[in-house]
Amino acid sequence: MSKVVVCARFRPLSSNEVRDHGNGVSIQRIDDESFNFKDEKDGDLLFSFDRVFYEDSAQSNVCEFLASPIVRDAVNGTNGTIITYGQTGAGKTYSMEGPSITECDDQKRGLIPRVIGGLFEIINSSYGSTTYSVKLSMVYRFSNSCRLRFTWRKLGRYHSTAIFFDVGMDLFDLSKDNIQIKESKSQGIILSGVTEIPVLEPAEALQVLSKGITNRAVGETQMNMASSRSHCVYIFTVQQELPVQKRTETGKLFLVDLAGSEKVGKTGAEGKLLEEAKTINKSLSALGKVVYALTSSPQSKLNHIPYRDSKLTRMLQDALGGSCRMALLCCCSLSPSNASETLSTLRFGARAQHIKAMPFVIPSEDKTSKTEESNVPDKDEACERILNKVHI
Ligand SMILES: Nc1ncnc2c1ncn2[C@@H]1O[C@H](COP(=O)(O)OP(=O)(O)OP(=O)(O)O)[C@@H](O)[C@H]1O
After folding, report:
1. Is pLDDT above 90 for 375?
2. Closest listed residue to residue 285, CA positions, set 171, 189, 166
3. Burial class (CB in 10 A: 0-12, 13-18, 19+), 11
4. Where is the Kinesin motor domain (predicted)?
5. From the alpha carbon of 331, which atom of ligand 1 is closest?
6. How deeply is 248 buried, as exposed, middle or buried, from its count of CB atoms within 10 A (0-12, 13-18, 19+)?
7. Is ipTM strictly over 0.90?
8. Which residue range forms the structural domain that includes residue 246?
9. What would the pLDDT profile of 253-295 be if each residue is shown by its tens digit?
10. Any idea what the CATH number is for the domain that residue 20 is in?
11. Which residues line ligand 1 (CB under 6 A)?
12. Ligand 1 pocket: which of 7, 9, 11, 140 to mutate (most atoms <8 Å of CB)?
């Protein structure tokens, strides 16, 4: 498995979508890795990802493919990140949490309860003298907060401007509303003062995280937020005590439920909300740049990874590059009414995967028979076509 895995997931059509637009969908399945996206403007576009989860995919399959290797690594002291990306309503939270974090219907359980189950299963089945401890933290927003306001007088009139910063808040202690990100030589990136709650078993971990989810709603009400757009980051810290080697090893696992990726104009935001939406989009774009830089070939000139461009990427710095595994799940709606948002989500994922998954227009001579399997190019052929012929 490569260190960066990019997958697409399509949620089923909602009853409203079926009522308003019928059962039509914007993609045509090819196989577990590829599909055609039907674009009114550009014609058919072929996308390939490490795995595509269609609307009938099971939560357990998503977790098995995306999270299992990352969980194993975290228990062994290597950091990792799982990110859900997509527009509002595309299925990010459903993939992360399931219908609810404490949902007991096994089939519907999301990544978080499965990751917790997996972590403790590995820990409890380990033998030898190594002892493990698991701590949880939860931070959110990383969008702007007005911290400074300047007022000055010019030509007899008062002018005022606000400076916005992206800030992280502690979901286990709402009084900590500006978590600082620091770097230490021995520990790498640290979230200064963030609450870490030790947990001993899965049920306790789920209770703790569900409190954080409740606090998120409380925090948003307290701040009178009209928008629920915010990134939510679940942090699992797994520490191993190795008495023989007389040392400890720490693996961190970050599960990131990103804010909706819709364009600022579409949100209809104004004033403070507009500033907030811009900050969110800036951090999403910073994340895209970081992932793009990480997946560039070593020969590429793109050897600078711009972690410092946003607090979100800075916080994830130790869990994205190097030997860390990262999984990006691009969540999409199947409905043709959301086609442009779906296309932009897919392009984000394709950029993260680079050339091996860049979308391309099937050349016109292939279009008449594009549905026949024999005419669907494989990935190598796709790369060749992109390199030689097709520019998007
Ligand atoms: N794979 C799926 N199977 C069944 N229902 C799903 C699936 N994915 C999403 N849904 C449903 O679609 C709706 C929107 O999903 P969800 O809340 O996860 O979107 P989101 O991307 O997290 O949106 P937001 O950015 O606003 O939080 C929910 O009612 C959810 O239950």
Report:
1. no
2. 166
3. buried
4. 3-355
5. 21
6. middle
7. yes
8. 2-389
9. 999 999 888 776 665 666 666 777 777 888 888 998 888 888 7
10. 3.40.850.10
11. 11-12, 86, 88-94, 99, 260, 331
12. 11
* Burial call 158-175: b when 16+ CB within 10 Å, e when fewer: eeeeeebebbbbbbbeee
| Rounded Cα gap, residues 295 and 83, in angstroms | 15
To the question of whether residue 87 is assigned a binding role by annotation, the answer is yes
Residue 39: pLDDT band with limits 50, 70, 90: confident
Q: Which tokens in the block code for residue 168?
A: 């992280």
222 labeled part of a ligand binding site: no
Any known ligand binding at 91?
yes
> Which residue puts its alpha carbon closest to atom 30 of ligand 1?
94
Q: Which of 16, 83, 84, 93 to mutate to test the pocket of ligand 1 (most atoms within 8 A of CB)?
A: 93
329 pLDDT higher than 50: yes
Q: Which residues pair with 131 in a beta bridge?
A: 241
In this prediction, residues 353-368 reach a mean pLDDT of 51
Percent of the chain predicted with pLDDT > 70: 75
- Provide the token pair at 240: 């191993």
Beta strands in 115-200 (DSSP E): 131-154, 157-170, 180-184, 188-192, 197-199
- Among 326-330, 337-341, 355-359, name the one with the lowest average pLDDT: 355-359
Among protein residues, the one whose CA lies closest to atom 15 of ligand 1? 91
